[in-house]
Specification:
This protein has a single domain, classed as Beta Barrel (YmcC-like fold), CATH 2.40.360. With about 270 residues, it is mainly beta. Helix content is about 5%, strand content about 55%.
Protein backbone atom coordinates (compact mmCIF):
# COMPACT_ATOMS: atom_id res chain seq x y z
CA UNK A 1 0.00 0.00 0.00
CA UNK A 2 1.84 3.06 -1.26
CA UNK A 3 -0.01 5.76 0.66
CA UNK A 4 1.61 7.90 3.35
CA UNK A 5 0.12 6.96 6.74
CA UNK A 6 0.28 10.59 7.88
CA UNK A 7 -2.00 11.59 5.00
CA UNK A 8 -4.78 9.37 6.37
CA UNK A 9 -4.33 10.67 9.90
CA UNK A 10 -4.39 14.33 8.89
CA UNK A 11 -7.29 13.86 6.48
CA UNK A 12 -9.28 11.85 9.00
CA UNK A 13 -8.66 14.30 11.80
CA UNK A 14 -9.39 17.46 9.83
CA UNK A 15 -12.42 16.18 7.94
CA UNK A 16 -14.04 14.44 10.89
CA UNK A 17 -13.61 17.54 13.05
CA UNK A 18 -15.42 19.47 10.34
CA UNK A 19 -18.27 16.95 10.55
CA UNK A 20 -18.55 17.56 14.26
CA UNK A 21 -19.39 21.06 13.72
CA UNK A 22 -19.61 22.94 15.66
CA UNK A 23 -16.37 22.19 14.70
CA UNK A 24 -14.98 21.53 6.76
CA UNK A 25 -17.52 21.29 -2.40
CA UNK A 26 -18.60 22.58 -5.19
CA UNK A 27 -22.30 22.07 -4.82
CA UNK A 28 -25.62 23.82 -5.15
CA UNK A 29 -25.79 27.05 -3.19
CA UNK A 30 -29.16 27.67 -1.50
CA UNK A 31 -31.02 30.80 -2.53
CA UNK A 32 -30.02 33.85 -0.53
CA UNK A 33 -26.64 32.50 0.59
CA UNK A 34 -22.98 32.96 -0.29
CA UNK A 35 -21.71 31.63 -3.59
CA UNK A 36 -18.54 29.48 -3.62
CA UNK A 37 -16.60 32.56 -4.73
CA UNK A 38 -17.68 34.23 -1.51
CA UNK A 39 -20.09 36.85 -2.87
CA UNK A 40 -23.21 37.05 -0.72
CA UNK A 41 -26.45 37.00 -2.66
CA UNK A 42 -28.37 38.19 0.36
CA UNK A 43 -27.04 39.63 3.60
CA UNK A 44 -28.70 40.30 6.91
CA UNK A 45 -26.23 42.52 8.76
CA UNK A 46 -26.80 43.42 12.39
CA UNK A 47 -25.30 45.98 14.72
CA UNK A 48 -26.49 44.08 17.78
CA UNK A 49 -27.80 40.55 18.13
CA UNK A 50 -31.56 40.66 18.72
CA UNK A 51 -32.77 39.47 22.10
CA UNK A 52 -36.02 38.19 20.68
CA UNK A 53 -37.09 37.15 17.20
CA UNK A 54 -40.32 36.03 15.53
CA UNK A 55 -38.22 33.28 13.95
CA UNK A 56 -37.35 31.79 17.34
CA UNK A 57 -38.08 28.06 17.07
CA UNK A 58 -40.17 26.09 19.51
CA UNK A 59 -40.31 22.43 20.48
CA UNK A 60 -37.62 19.90 21.35
CA UNK A 61 -35.01 21.57 19.11
CA UNK A 62 -35.55 25.13 20.40
CA UNK A 63 -32.19 26.51 21.54
CA UNK A 64 -31.57 30.26 22.00
CA UNK A 65 -27.96 30.09 20.78
CA UNK A 66 -28.36 27.62 17.90
CA UNK A 67 -31.60 28.37 16.01
CA UNK A 68 -33.01 25.24 14.38
CA UNK A 69 -35.26 26.68 11.67
CA UNK A 70 -35.96 24.88 8.36
CA UNK A 71 -34.32 26.75 5.50
CA UNK A 72 -32.06 28.85 7.73
CA UNK A 73 -28.63 29.59 6.23
CA UNK A 74 -25.41 31.07 7.57
CA UNK A 75 -22.55 32.22 5.31
CA UNK A 76 -19.06 31.99 6.79
CA UNK A 77 -15.56 33.05 5.83
CA UNK A 78 -12.87 30.52 6.73
CA UNK A 79 -9.22 31.57 7.07
CA UNK A 80 -6.41 29.13 7.79
CA UNK A 81 -4.54 26.37 5.93
CA UNK A 82 -7.29 26.23 3.28
CA UNK A 83 -9.08 29.63 3.08
CA UNK A 84 -12.65 29.33 1.85
CA UNK A 85 -16.25 30.47 2.08
CA UNK A 86 -18.99 28.05 3.10
CA UNK A 87 -22.73 27.95 3.65
CA UNK A 88 -24.28 26.15 6.61
CA UNK A 89 -27.98 25.32 6.32
CA UNK A 90 -30.75 23.48 8.13
CA UNK A 91 -32.04 20.94 5.60
CA UNK A 92 -34.90 19.44 7.61
CA UNK A 93 -36.40 19.48 11.09
CA UNK A 94 -38.39 16.66 12.69
CA UNK A 95 -40.12 16.51 16.07
CA UNK A 96 -36.93 15.64 17.93
CA UNK A 97 -34.14 15.80 15.34
CA UNK A 98 -32.76 17.82 12.46
CA UNK A 99 -30.25 17.58 9.62
CA UNK A 100 -27.71 20.28 8.77
CA UNK A 101 -25.26 20.73 5.91
CA UNK A 102 -22.09 22.65 5.06
CA UNK A 103 -21.24 23.43 1.42
CA UNK A 104 -17.69 24.68 0.77
CA UNK A 105 -16.23 26.35 -2.29
CA UNK A 106 -13.18 24.03 -2.28
CA UNK A 107 -15.11 20.85 -3.05
CA UNK A 108 -16.14 19.67 0.41
CA UNK A 109 -19.67 18.94 1.59
CA UNK A 110 -20.78 17.68 4.99
CA UNK A 111 -24.14 16.51 6.28
CA UNK A 112 -24.92 15.53 9.85
CA UNK A 113 -27.88 14.33 11.89
CA UNK A 114 -28.68 15.83 15.28
CA UNK A 115 -31.12 14.82 17.99
CA UNK A 116 -32.94 17.24 20.31
CA UNK A 117 -33.93 16.83 23.95
CA UNK A 118 -35.90 19.74 25.43
CA UNK A 119 -33.61 22.25 23.74
CA UNK A 120 -30.34 20.37 24.28
CA UNK A 121 -28.74 19.52 20.92
CA UNK A 122 -26.73 16.35 20.31
CA UNK A 123 -24.66 15.92 17.13
CA UNK A 124 -24.54 12.58 15.30
CA UNK A 125 -26.91 10.72 17.61
CA UNK A 126 -26.75 6.94 16.89
CA UNK A 127 -30.29 6.46 18.17
CA UNK A 128 -31.42 8.53 15.19
CA UNK A 129 -29.38 6.48 12.78
CA UNK A 130 -26.63 9.09 13.06
CA UNK A 131 -24.10 9.13 10.28
CA UNK A 132 -21.99 11.68 8.46
CA UNK A 133 -19.90 11.90 5.34
CA UNK A 134 -17.37 14.27 3.86
CA UNK A 135 -16.33 14.39 0.23
CA UNK A 136 -13.36 16.32 -1.14
CA UNK A 137 -11.05 15.96 -4.14
CA UNK A 138 -9.39 12.51 -3.90
CA UNK A 139 -10.65 12.07 -0.30
CA UNK A 140 -13.84 10.46 0.95
CA UNK A 141 -14.72 9.89 4.61
CA UNK A 142 -17.81 7.88 5.55
CA UNK A 143 -18.60 7.20 9.22
CA UNK A 144 -21.31 5.89 11.48
CA UNK A 145 -21.63 6.91 15.12
CA UNK A 146 -21.15 3.75 17.20
CA UNK A 147 -20.98 5.30 20.69
CA UNK A 148 -22.16 8.62 22.07
CA UNK A 149 -22.75 10.22 25.45
CA UNK A 150 -23.20 13.75 26.71
CA UNK A 151 -24.46 16.74 24.72
CA UNK A 152 -23.10 19.09 22.06
CA UNK A 153 -24.88 22.25 23.22
CA UNK A 154 -27.15 22.49 26.28
CA UNK A 155 -30.60 24.05 26.33
CA UNK A 156 -29.56 26.75 28.78
CA UNK A 157 -26.05 28.09 29.34
CA UNK A 158 -24.71 30.41 32.03
CA UNK A 159 -21.19 31.69 32.68
CA UNK A 160 -19.17 28.93 34.32
CA UNK A 161 -21.26 26.05 32.98
CA UNK A 162 -19.31 23.05 31.65
CA UNK A 163 -20.48 20.13 29.49
CA UNK A 164 -18.89 17.17 27.73
CA UNK A 165 -19.60 14.94 24.75
CA UNK A 166 -17.92 11.61 24.00
CA UNK A 167 -18.23 10.29 20.47
CA UNK A 168 -16.89 7.27 18.60
CA UNK A 169 -17.10 7.22 14.80
CA UNK A 170 -16.21 4.15 12.77
CA UNK A 171 -16.08 3.68 9.03
CA UNK A 172 -13.81 4.02 6.04
CA UNK A 173 -11.54 6.64 4.57
CA UNK A 174 -10.50 6.65 0.94
CA UNK A 175 -7.61 8.63 -0.52
CA UNK A 176 -6.94 8.40 -4.27
CA UNK A 177 -8.90 5.15 -4.50
CA UNK A 178 -7.20 3.40 -1.57
CA UNK A 179 -9.60 2.50 1.25
CA UNK A 180 -8.77 1.82 4.90
CA UNK A 181 -10.87 1.24 8.06
CA UNK A 182 -10.77 4.16 10.50
CA UNK A 183 -11.96 4.58 14.09
CA UNK A 184 -12.16 8.04 15.64
CA UNK A 185 -12.77 8.65 19.35
CA UNK A 186 -13.45 12.19 20.57
CA UNK A 187 -13.94 13.78 23.95
CA UNK A 188 -15.00 17.42 23.80
CA UNK A 189 -15.29 19.51 26.95
CA UNK A 190 -16.71 23.03 26.77
CA UNK A 191 -16.98 25.86 29.31
CA UNK A 192 -19.03 29.05 28.94
CA UNK A 193 -17.24 32.20 30.10
CA UNK A 194 -19.85 34.92 29.65
CA UNK A 195 -21.16 37.40 27.07
CA UNK A 196 -18.92 39.85 25.20
CA UNK A 197 -19.09 42.07 22.12
CA UNK A 198 -17.81 40.52 18.88
CA UNK A 199 -17.51 42.22 15.48
CA UNK A 200 -17.53 40.16 12.26
CA UNK A 201 -18.57 40.76 8.66
CA UNK A 202 -22.25 40.33 9.52
CA UNK A 203 -22.14 43.03 12.21
CA UNK A 204 -21.47 43.48 15.93
CA UNK A 205 -23.06 41.03 18.33
CA UNK A 206 -23.37 40.48 22.06
CA UNK A 207 -22.23 36.86 22.03
CA UNK A 208 -21.73 34.04 24.53
CA UNK A 209 -18.08 32.95 24.61
CA UNK A 210 -17.52 29.18 24.89
CA UNK A 211 -14.07 27.56 25.21
CA UNK A 212 -13.79 23.92 24.07
CA UNK A 213 -11.05 21.31 23.98
CA UNK A 214 -11.31 18.15 21.89
CA UNK A 215 -9.04 15.18 22.62
CA UNK A 216 -8.95 12.85 19.61
CA UNK A 217 -7.69 9.29 19.16
CA UNK A 218 -7.54 8.15 15.53
CA UNK A 219 -6.90 4.51 14.63
CA UNK A 220 -6.31 3.49 11.01
CA UNK A 221 -5.77 -0.11 9.98
CA UNK A 222 -3.35 -0.63 7.10
CA UNK A 223 -2.45 -4.15 5.99
CA UNK A 224 -4.06 -5.51 9.20
CA UNK A 225 -1.81 -3.27 11.27
CA UNK A 226 -3.62 -0.78 13.60
CA UNK A 227 -1.88 2.59 13.79
CA UNK A 228 -2.96 5.08 16.48
CA UNK A 229 -2.34 8.75 16.98
CA UNK A 230 -3.61 11.29 19.50
CA UNK A 231 -4.44 14.88 18.63
CA UNK A 232 -5.73 17.80 20.71
CA UNK A 233 -7.68 20.74 19.33
CA UNK A 234 -8.87 23.89 21.10
CA UNK A 235 -11.57 26.28 19.99
CA UNK A 236 -13.06 29.55 21.17
CA UNK A 237 -16.64 30.03 19.98
CA UNK A 238 -19.00 33.00 20.12
CA UNK A 239 -22.77 32.43 19.87
CA UNK A 240 -25.34 35.24 19.54
CA UNK A 241 -28.89 34.69 20.74
CA UNK A 242 -31.35 33.85 17.93
CA UNK A 243 -28.48 34.03 15.41
CA UNK A 244 -26.11 31.15 16.20
CA UNK A 245 -22.35 30.87 15.74
CA UNK A 246 -20.81 34.23 14.77
CA UNK A 247 -17.12 33.43 15.25
CA UNK A 248 -14.89 30.43 15.92
CA UNK A 249 -11.12 30.28 16.44
CA UNK A 250 -9.52 26.82 16.21
CA UNK A 251 -5.97 25.98 17.31
CA UNK A 252 -3.90 22.80 17.45
CA UNK A 253 -1.95 20.30 15.35
CA UNK A 254 -1.02 22.92 12.75
CA UNK A 255 -4.67 23.32 11.74
CA UNK A 256 -5.23 26.82 13.17
CA UNK A 257 -8.20 28.56 11.55
CA UNK A 258 -10.83 31.23 12.07
CA UNK A 259 -14.48 31.17 11.00
CA UNK A 260 -16.48 34.42 10.88
CA UNK A 261 -20.13 35.02 10.00
CA UNK A 262 -20.53 37.05 6.81
CA UNK A 263 -24.32 37.02 6.45
CA UNK A 264 -27.32 34.94 7.45
CA UNK A 265 -30.96 34.31 6.62
CA UNK A 266 -33.23 32.83 9.29
CA UNK A 267 -36.86 32.62 7.99
Amino acid sequence: MNINKKSYLIAGGALVLSMLACNLGNGPVPSGTTSPEGTPNESTPATKAPTDSPSSPSGACANPYLPVVPGATWNYKLTGPVPDMFTRSILSVEASSFTDQDVFGTGVTRQGKWSCDNGSLIALDPSSGGSASVNAENVTVDFQTTELSGITFPATVNAGDTWTQNTTLEGTETISGTQVPVKNQFTTTCTASGVESVTVGAGTFDALRVECQTATNITITMQNNPIQTNMTFNSTNWYAKNIGLVKKVNTGEGLDSTIELVSYNIP
